[in-house]
Amino acid sequence: MSLALDIVARVRNGGGRAGHAWRAPGLVAPLAFVLLLVAAAAVPHWFTALAPDAVDTDAILLPPGLAHWFGTDQLGRDVFTRVVHGTSQSLGIGLGATLIGCAGGVLLGTAAGLAPPMLQRLLVRLIDILLAFPEILLALLIIAVLGRGPANTLLAVGLSSIAGYARLVRSQVLRVWQSGYVEHAVSLGESTPAIIARHVVPNAIRPLVVLATIGVGNAVLSASALSFIGLGVVPPAAEWGALLADGRNFLDTAPWISFLPATVVAASVIAITILGRRLQLLLSQGGQP
Amino acid sequence: MPGWLANALPAGLRRLGVIVAVLWGAATITFVAVKAIPGDPVAVLTGGENVVDAAEREALIRQFGLDQPLPVQYLRYIGQALLGDFGESYQYRQPVIEVIGEAAGPTLQLAGTAMALALGLAFVNALATAGRRKGLRTVLAGLELAVLSTPVYWVGLLLLTVFSFYLGWFPVIGGEGFRALVLPAIALSLPLAALLGQVLRDGLEEALLQPFALTVRTRGVSETQLRLRHALRHAALAVSTLTGTLFAGVLAGSILTETVFGRAGIGQITLQAIKTRDMPLLLGLVMLSALVSVLINLAVDALYLLIDPRLRRTAR
Prior knowledge:
The structure holds two protein chains of two kinds.
Chain A: H1 2-9, H2 28-42, H3 79-114, H4 117-132, H5 135-146, H6 150-160, H7 162-177, H8 180-187, H9 192-204, H10 206-228, H11 240-247, H12 256-286
Helix pairs in contact in A: 1-10, 2-3, 2-12, 3-4, 3-6, 3-7, 3-10, 4-7, 5-6, 6-10, 7-9, 8-9, 10-11, 10-12, 11-12
Chain B: H1 2-36, H2 41-45, H3 54-63, H4 70-82, H5 96-129, H6 134-148, H7 152-166, H8 177-208, H9 211-218, H10 223-261, H11 266-275, H12 279-307, H13 309-315
Helix pairs in contact in B: 1-4, 1-12, 5-8, 5-10, 5-11, 5-12, 6-8, 7-8, 7-10, 8-10, 10-11, 10-12, 11-12, 12-13
């Protein structure tokens, strides 16, 4: 998960061969899909007439078909309806967790870049230690302390991603601190906190904005993974990961209960990631004449 | 040799310091987590049911040192943990080291197979498409991107749905032996292969543009020889780092893969430890994961010196 940040950070300067970034063919489909997701989160009843918890004992474990696009589960609930109604919660957790991760990352990264040397070394070591953990293990530890549930899943995913963002912010802060305009501000006699708040942080977090886009995809993924292994959002909530967990006991008789919602998660994450990368490419091109 | 040693010793000591610091940090984080868990520790110890009488309760508290002040508990715990003594698992009623040892077998089997498969796929893919076969290259690069952003459990579910449910070639849940290893290993290896393939191709393409590649070509060496004997060495540097990081991450990946395929292993006991709040076991697992990550970083650095002779000179 923090790995994805590394991948993005080393994206090649391949913009030249793709032509202008907005006109690239690979952009329309992901953009449309993300808009569709946002619509499903805002107005789920436009997409399905059924209720997510409506039990239908005449339609148990039906395979996908015209009446039930994604089939039905062991209680006869329509899987497509549940996926649609789960969108808002899953995206909400993804967005919230990314916000926590970024905010924490900016705080920790700025402190680790500009604190007095002793404290700086301590914070850098702390970031290293946190990065030595697989993110999911950290999230699991947090869940073990806080317990399960949507809010705790959001917290666990957010907190466990802080170290990755912090490392990036620190390197940016160090770079900005050396720049001419900071030197200028210092010579004008601005106070250090003002310089940090007004010049350093805003400039240091610019690359973070793009990474955060991709981070939302990763957070959705992590949250659904937590729910899938039974430690995130608990069924009967219609969150995506919980839907997957629901179908785990029916893998040998009705695999679609897990597989089709998982496909929606995969498609969402891919769409968000492609959008983020495109955005990154666009910004890097915009910086050049 | 003494001169070499004099240079290597401080560096080695510094590395040792970092290792101890990371392990200490990991142990401390877990200690804080354990203490932050709400509820009666004795209830956790006895598996939730408060069936113990007062005397037994007293004995348990004394046995696990819960009557000591927090700093004393912390020191005792850190000391024992750094010596590799994690105590006895609440749930399995045997030493944590033994529980982990038993579970490590299937996980190492899975992780090793997946890693070997991923490296094989990545090398073939990169050698075949770096700087040539434009169509194939585009297709594979697109596939890599898709696989990279795909949840590992989705790949697992896809494989299960197609090969177990519809075709019936492989068992759906658990099982022993090679047949049960195929699908999980493929599921775990695909994302690794995609990432490794990307990095390796990038490295190869960069190496093939350098002056030495032209020199080798003018000597009349075949393109395949150039790639295998000269360019690959350059590209392998980045890949070795990544392989290390990825291998450390395989523990995390194994939690999901083992859940999808119902396999026994480290991932499963981690989940169990968290669900039942089996704290000694959880501590052991966290320390193991930190240790693995530190040791792998060490091995990667050593590998660097092996691959790139230039680094040996600057290191001295």
